[in-house]
Amino acid sequence: MATKRKLPDNPNSELVDFLHELADYEKNVSRLIHKYNAYRKAASSIAKVDHKIETIKDIKGLEGIGKKIEAKIEQYLSTGKIQKLETNRGDATGASINELTRIMEKKMSKYLIILALLFMIIVNILAEDKLQIGIKKKVENCDRKSKKGDRLHMHYTGTLKSNGKKFDSSLDRGEPFVFTIGTGQVIKGWDQGLLNMCEGEQRKLVIPPSLGYGDRGAGNDIPGGATLVFEVELVKIERGNNDL
Question: What dihedral do alpha carbons 30, 32, 38, 39 form, nearest 10°?
Answer without folding.
Answer: 20
